[in-house]
Write a structure and sequence with these properties.
Largest sheet: none
Subcellular location: Cell membrane
Structural class: mainly alpha
Order of helices and strands: HHHHHHHHHHHHHHHHHH
Pfam families: Chromate_transp (PF02417)
Keywords: Cell membrane, Membrane, Transmembrane, Transmembrane helix
Shape: globular
InterPro entries: Chr_Tranpt_l_chain (IPR014047), Chromate_transpt (IPR003370)
Strand content: under 5%
Protein name: Chromate efflux transporter
Number of strands: 0
Mean pLDDT: 84
Radius of gyration: 23 Å
Helix content: over 70%
Distance between the termini: 79 Å
Length: about 450
């Protein structure tokens, strides 16, 4: 007669906690491999940290993600900073968030240099012509991927649709949309709590993964607990660093100097825009192209194409905007155009990402204290759903500029449309990765321009 195996003997144990050195190696690797925009980067971190390494549980991962989705700035980079901070204090957050950005900055500076020096060469222009419609398909794919993870029921679908109509048809500012979605989530969590519970639909997957280093019921580490003294230390440190850097630019360039205006504009972009790269790019386009004329609309779309081919957060396209603006303004004279671009890219990157670290180090201890409390998580879930609608609006924005680059009266770009459809088919039907799609579209565009 057989005896049933002991359940305790079969129960898996949590993996050993990683050292700071092991975490450094992981975040450095992620910085070079995190392609695919925020959706792809979040999916990659989920696969690595939740499913494979089990450094953090599904529920804790989604709880952090929902907070980062609410913040202005790049949610994937902020999520990496949050997890790095939760595991290894402030140094862990700085390492995770910094290495998420640094490889992309170096690669994007090199690509921007090539673009400004040789971008008008027919072969290069043709490649960019093909990449642009592929980028539009990638944005649509991102909306689908984020939506599939977020929109678990008709309430959340309705919020996404309402957000799209609000920004597309009514032109409402995104902060207002976020606020209204949060209100809906707050009352929805009271009236229909099951519809606004974080992480719905993931229970079976969580059960098969086993316990994590930071599991659902793991107590909040001492460094992650909220305290007012720590709150004010973070405010003083980040605020002082920002004031010191901006003051140095005012002293060196004057308030009206290009670098100073870039620092001020991208500080506002980082603080006043929500929903990550797909929501902030229209604001950046309006300011950088329409108001300051640092670059043209065509150059802005080219920048997004370059951004999609590099690792790191898609909002790194702002580094390209800075590089093109610094080069075009000849900040250091006509003999030093590349170095003007490098300086402007560095300034823009610093002032864009400093608030991201500030929001995580300041707010994450409070968010950790709300873990599992529906009155706090329901509004975050609703806001995440609203962000999906804003991403769809951005897809429409880019599709118009790619398919009608000279306006409605300027004719329809049939070749661009066909390349975009081919890219969408590759992404949705055949599950091809972002980089092969971008490279293939670039080859098609180059061939069309050279043979056409």
């Amino acid at each position: 007669m057989s005896t049933a195996p002991s359940s305790s003997a079969e129960a898996p144990s949590a993996p050993p906690a990683p050292t700071l050195g092991q975490a450094f190696v992981y975040w450095l690797r992620l910085g070079f491999l995190s392609f695919g925009g925020p959706a792809g980067q979040i999916a990659l971190m989920h696969e690595d940290l939740v499913e494979r390494r089990r450094w953090i549980s599904e529920q804790r991962f989604l709880h952090a993600l929902n907070y980062c989705m609410v913040l202005p700035g790049p949610e994937a980079q902020q999520l990496a900073t949050y997890i790095g901070w939760l595991m290894h204090r402030g140094w862990g957050g700085l390492i995770a968030g910094g290495l998420f950005v640094l490889p992309s900055l170096l690669i994007l500076i090199a690509l921007s240099w090539v673009y400004m020096a040789w971008g008008q060469v027919p072969a290069v222009a043709g490649v960019l012509y093909g990449i642009k419609p592929a980028v539009t398909a990638i944005v649509v794919s991102a909306a689908v991927r984020i939506g599939s993870r977020t929109l678990k029921n008709r309430w959340l679908w309705g919020l996404a649709a309402a957000a799209f109509l609000a920004i597309f048809a009514l032109g409402l500012p995104f902060p207002l949309i976020v606020g209204l979605a949060g209100v809906v989530g707050y009352f929805g969590g009271r009236l229909a709590p099951a519809q606004f519970t974080v992480g719905g639909g993931h229970g079976a997957q969580r059960a098969s993964q086993g316990p994590a280093v930071i599991d659902d019921d793991t107590p909040t580490p001492a460094h992650a607990r909220f305290s007012w003294p720590r709150f004010w230390r973070v405010v003083a440190a980040c605020g002082g660093l920002w004031a010191l850097a901006l003051g140095a630019l005012v002293w060196a360039c004057g308030w009206d100097g290009v670098l100073t205006q870039m620092a001020w504009f991208f500080t506002k972009a980082a603080l006043l825009t929500f929903g990550g790269a797909y929501a902030v790019l229209p604001y950046v386009y309006q300011g950088a192209a329409d108001h300051f004329h640092w670059l043209t609309p065509g150059q802005m779309i080219d920048g997004l194409a370059l951004g999609e081919t590099t690792p790191g957060p898609l909002i790194m396209v702002v580094s390209y905007v800075g590089f093109v603006g610094g080069w075009g303004q000849a900040l250091f004279g006509p003999q030093a155009l590349p170095w003007a671009g490098v300086a402007a890219a560095a300034v823009v990157t610093f002032f864009t990402f400093l608030p991201s670290f500030f929001f995580i180090f300041l707010g994450a201890p409070f968010i950790e204290s709300t873990h599992g409390k529906l009155q706090f998580t329901a509004p975050l879930t609703a806001i995440t759903a609203a962000v999906v609608g804003v991403i769809v609006n951005l897809a429409v924005f880019f599709a118009y500029h790619v398919l009608w680059p000279r306006g409605w009266a300027g004719g329809f770009e049939w070749v661009a449309a066909l390349i975009g459809l081919a890219a969408a088919l590759a992404l949705f039907r055949f599950k091809v990765g972002v980089i092969p799609v971008v490279l293939g579209a670039g080859l098609l565009g180059g061939a069309w321009r050279l043979l056409g």
